[in-house]
Amino acid sequence: MAKAVRFHAAGGPEVLRLEQVEVGDPGPGQVRVRHVAVGLNYADTYFRNGTYPVPTPSGIGVEASGVVTAVGDGVQGLAPGDRVTYTGFVNTLGAYCTERVMAAAPLIKLPDTIAFETAAAMTMRGLTSAYLLRRIYDFKPGQTILLHAAAGGVGLIVSQWAKLLGLNVIGTVGSAAKAEIALAHGCAHTIDYSREDVASRVRELTGGEGVHVVFDSVGKDTFMGSVDSLRRRGLLVCVGTASGPVPPFDPILLAQKGSLFVTRPALADYIADPAEKAALADEVFGLVGAGKIRIEINQRYTLEDAVQAHRDLEARKTTGSSIFVI
Q1: Which of 130, 138, 262, 309 has the CA that lies 20 to 30 A from 1?
Q2: Record's SMART domains (predicted)?
Q3: Would you call 15 helix, strand, or coil by DSSP?
């Protein structure tokens, strides 16, 4: 028997339960994977609380690393004993478990240079960072970005990578401690949103011009500040809604604020093509394997701790990446 965290109705962290489950054998196009580490992502809370509705009872979690223990008919390029990692969305839901049967398509073979825990902490965050920096905008050295939640898991990867690309990173944080973390990982400046006006400070730091791109994973609470931080014809990339959905707005606002652009990308659309997914994975794993980007795992939990892990995540008590260790 395997263990899996499941929920039988949408709600707060308390709806999560650790249960015994049968795993079985993989069918055509499937594999069985024994997990070593599981990623904890803010998106997991959206499945749990009903923001992303799924039929219940349901598993939870979309990212993990481990070892292939069996393969079904028609599976190519994978064999028992292979080290793998994966991320996705609905097609990988159920990662909070010790072992599972799942589709083979989302799996990525893990380079020997990347440990299981590192992979669970970075596959989703790393691929997200990769498409944000390599697909969303044609960045040039010397350009400036505003990065919300700069001390979070994606934030720490983006800030390090952006610095490698020659970009100036202004990161927002919620405390002095988080500011120190962000500055140590590539931010040129930080803004403490708990005591500073973000847009005003951005204008001060950019000589009144504003930034070329804003990466906003917070949503409702930061939307207008993000808009007001952009230079003429700048781009707002809405990549999350930690504080709630962005309120409806009239598109004329974009013209009034300087002919701005807004996009709301999803990782699924940047890893749907296997070749593009492989290219993004190779680039981010290569940078991490070479030591050019550090993955900070600052919280480790067991599956028994799932309720507390979600409480910590929603209270913004975490920094860097969080994982479950199996």
Answers
A1: 309
A2: PKS_ER
A3: helix
